[in-house]
Structures
1.
Amino acid sequence: MVRELFGEVISNVKVGIKNIYLLKIKIGEVVELYPGQFAMIKVTDSFDPFLRRPMSLYNVEKDICSFLYQVVGRGTEILSKKRIGEEVNLLLPLGNTFPKLNKQEKILLVGGGVGIAPLNFLINFYKDKVNFYSYLGFSSIVSEEIYKDFKEYSRELVISTEDGSLGFKGKVLEFLPDDLEYFDKIFSCGPSLMLESLWRRVKDKGKLYFSLEEKMGCGIGICLSCALKGRDRMFHVCKDGPVLSGMEVQFDG
Ligand SMILES: Cc1cc2nc3c(=O)[nH]c(=O)nc-3n(C[C@H](O)[C@H](O)[C@H](O)COP(=O)(O)OP(=O)(O)OC[C@H]3O[C@@H](n4cnc5c(N)ncnc54)[C@H](O)[C@@H]3O)c2cc1C
Ligand code: FES
């Protein structure tokens, strides 16, 4: 059941040269939260900006929720100025979750930029109970802090940056294994062009799950601003998603 919670910022630090920040909020109580879910964050006390901003849960430890975000506009700029001790109002939990994983499944994670956020919560949720193979791409160098859990819990971790400042030089899809059918499931979040190329490469679309980042107004299925044409029907990404399977999405219409 979605709730309005008032948390307190306990940390908000820059972790990448491309304006990437890691925000930790103490919400003061333990809430049942699952990988894939997101929060709608109110970035000011006033009504300007009016809309909350959707952010995936990057991690949850007891009553502390973390978010990894990139400053792209006014809302995220205001968020980046939040100091320790400031109050933040959030709606949570929202959206569906990644499907449940079975022990020993082989799971490929493909994250682009701050799209690694929901994958980080997923890997922390299962830790070494599942065989994760993680492929993460950034435009430029990021702090090790944001991928340390992938390093610890993945059987294989490949990092690339477009400018070559960390890991391989290039886009992360260039470094994926040839045989993607080897994996039991594939989870991805990041820029839509990356998701589309991955979708085209994987033959068995039923293995694929994307966490989508459509523009949102309400986050609870009322305003219809997150409507997305899927293969067989319309989806409201906030309510039916943000996790949709490769069988549900439509890239070629
Ligand atoms: C379910 C969900 C989870 C998300 N998780 C994260 C996350 O973990 N980390 C993160 O950095 N961002 C995440 N986003 C995207 C984030 O919500 C937007 O970047 C943010 O709302 C932009 O607000 P702004 O006021 O700074 O930018 P605006 O001034 O509103 O817009 C600036 C630019 O960002 C683009 N933009 C705005 N909203 C979105 C959006 N929802 N998706 C993609 N582009 C957008 C606009 O087209 C514009 O080009 C998520 C979005 C969704 C729907
Ligand atoms: S954001 Fe309002 S219906 Fe999805």
2.
Amino acid sequence: MRAGWVPPPARRVRALRARLRELYGLPSLPPHGDPLAELVLTVLSQSTNDRNRDVAYLRLRERLPTWEQVRDADVAVVRDAIQPGGLHVQKSRRIQDVLRALPEDLGLSWMREAPVGGRDGSRAFLCALPGVGRKTAACVLLFSYGLRDIPVDTHVARVGTRLGLLRPHAALDPELHDAMLALTPPRAELELHVNLLRHGRRTCHAQRPACAACGLRRMCPKVGVA
Ligand code: SF4
């Protein structure tokens, strides 16, 4: 926490969470149990949209059905498979670097029962992989196993900052991730992540937020001036 910045009280977080739920509902996204898939998807999602990411992912799985094959393939095969996702030269290297940094059997299921935090926790393990930061680690932990972490992407950071949940101009990694985790009640990680993301995509745009139509305008210190 920086001087002059005061995190929001729990009652404000509760009120915003409740209003977001009224607007967007309670997201249902059961953990899929596949941390390797989540790791690769987060690499593929950089600087592209969801559709192109998914096309690249499906082509990769068709051409190289096992993660061992992806790890051991000539990089050109991986690169060609993920070409529709863009930045395929960098992403193919990154995917193989991550897979080659994992244990030989590529097993990550131990994370399901392991502590998330701490020096020996699963978050620290993931963040030590090449090119993996807090957002990717949080995606793997939350979406694969429903563990306590919350990804802060550009939408969550922008909306959270405008609503006064997060300190303006703070770095994504680690400050905003630490702050978001601290203010998020246990078992509300998925809900807050998804609903802040939805609000950022649908209403609280980076340029010209639709404040006049915003369901949070009565609760927002940035209404009309974001
Ligand atoms: S009132 Fe405007 S700035 Fe505030 S959350 Fe809504 S769209 Fe974003």
3.
Amino acid sequence: MPGSDIGTAASGVWDRGLIRIGGFAPVSFADWPGEISAVIFCQGCPWDCGYCHNPDLIPARAPSRYGWDQILGFLRQRRGLLDGVVFSGGEPLLQKHLPAAMAAVKELGFRLGLHTGGAYPARFGRVLPLLDWVGFDIKAAPQDYPDLTHSRRSGDDAMESFRLLRRSGVPFETRTTLDPYFFTPPRLFRLEQTIRALGLNDHRMQDYRETGTRPRAG
Ligand code: SF4
């Protein structure tokens, strides 16, 4: 579970109902290429990928581990020391109050990054004007998404979100986790075709990490 030493919210506290936070990294050099950032791990994800290495972040109704005021207070003290703040997850777009939370962070003078799989295209479209960078997961070929995420519409939603991202002009990085349990040769072939069709020359293939994942059937 991502965490820090800034203290945690009392169990079950919904700090002013703003945003539910499952973890916080006060400094990261790896979550936004070229930027020194803090990372807010939003609680909850509508998908259920077998390779998820943060499954504790999947339940949407788990209590917030941090108060929003704690996070803002910490960030206030880091102005000038951090370049930006990344909203990660879980799936940050699940949070109804994400635009308000992002606006509050931006008001402190930080650049804004988002990690997303694109599960909510309409919400994504609303936050895109606030963003300086997006790390976008292309999980598989569109037709293979439901087998990976266990969500019927996930392939369509991800592709619609990616179209919005492209149209927005916001800088982005795309990546795929090469889950050896999922990627049979035909699925890998379809993924490569998808990446080629989308013209993603700098697409990043990430190695699968067993750490933190739930037990898998061989
Ligand atoms: S989309 Fe990300 S957070 Fe959600 S289940 Fe898949 S790997 Fe985990």
